[in-house]
Amino acid sequence: MSAVNDTTFKSSVFLLTGIPGQEDVQNLWISLPFCLIYVISILGNSVILFIIIIDPNLHEPMYIFLSMLGFTDLGLSIATIPTILGIFLFNSREISFDACFAQLFFIHLFQCFESSVLLLMAFDRFIAIRDPLRYASILTLPRIVKMGLVCVLRGVAVILPFPLLLKRFQYCRANVLSHSYCLHMEVMTMACADFTINNIYGLFTTVLTVGLDSLLIFLSYVMIIKTVLSIASHKEFLRALNTCVSHLCAVLLFYTPEFSLTLIHRFGKGSSPLLQIVLGYVYLMVPPLINPVVYSVKSKHLRSRIIRVFVK
């Protein structure tokens, strides 16, 4: 450990951190809920994907977008499983540079995908409410595929430079990360060089993806509310907004911890480390856990199809 703390020593690994001060209990009591969360997240999103694929009645735009959301949540869970459970189950804190760069690439990539899918789902709700008679003709399967492909290409294009920019640095400090996984905004601060370019590019990427998407989602709901108020009675207004509840829950679950953690990492140098750690886990683990539950509860068709499959 003395070598790790020596700033002239060139380490070949990063050291991940679990929950500070809980080392004596985290291997047993804390690992159990983490394992349970991952099992529920993976099973929940896998079941939704399976049901949507096998049921032709669910091959509609809303459910296709939901399957995209389930895929991104599944990928995000898988990207974080090795290091988080490695710490809490086996106290394995070391991660090589290449493995860390690969993990942060996939974490940020799936986060970018999720932001894009939430934007597409907001567009879906807007079309369904604004022009329901032309809904199916506007959101055709080829058009949805093209929209999904654009989201994938955008995500790869803006996230791929992250590991490439980080690989050019040498890392000779303590290399102790404050989370149980790797994030670009933290790894870059471990470099023994000027990381201004990384910082600027990271901020640019956040504005271009999460910032732009959240703004467009907000504008879409402004137009949805304006449309419903102008053409519908109070009862129809509530019925229309009820179709958006699941999406609004997903948006809040994703963007609230996302923005909070980004602001803390960039501007909250004196903030509580425990707050950063808690937000970090919420940021990655809560959306994949809650999204399948919310959509299963709110969608009668999806819920009844899941019940029929498992009752058999």
Please compute the radius of gyration using only Cα atoms. 21 Å
Distance between the termini: 56 Å
Q: Tell me the helix content.
A: over 70%
Strand content: under 5%
SSE string? HEHHEHHHHHHHHHH
Order of strands across the main sheet: 1-2
Main sheet?
2 strands, antiparallel
| Poorly predicted segments | 1-9
Enumerate how many helices there are, as a single number: 13
Mean of residue pLDDT values: 85
Could you give the count of β-strands?
A: 2
Structural class: mainly alpha
Shape: globular
Describe this structure in words.
By secondary structure, the chain is an all-alpha fold. Helix content is 77%, strand content 2%. The protein contains 13 helices and two strands. It has helices at residues 2-5, 23-54, 61-90, 97-130, 135-138, 141-159, 161-167, 184-187, 196-231, 234-242, 245-267, 273-298, 300-311; strands spanning 13-15, 94-96. Strands 1-2 form a two-stranded antiparallel sheet. Helix 3 (61-90) runs antiparallel to helix 4 (97-130). The longest helix has 36 residues, at 196-231. The protein is globular, with a radius of gyration of 21 Å.
Index terms:
312 residues, 2% strand, globular
SSE arrangement:
Blueprint: H1 2-5, E1 13-15, H2 23-54, H3 61-90, E2 94-96, H4 97-130, H5 135-138, H6 141-159, H7 161-167, H8 184-187, H9 196-231, H10 234-242, H11 245-267, H12 273-298, H13 300-311
Antiparallel strand pairs: 1-2
Helix pairs in contact: 2-3, 2-12, 2-13, 3-4, 3-12, 4-6, 4-7, 4-9, 4-11, 11-12, 12-13
Can you give me a brief rundown of this structure?
By secondary structure, this protein is mostly helical.
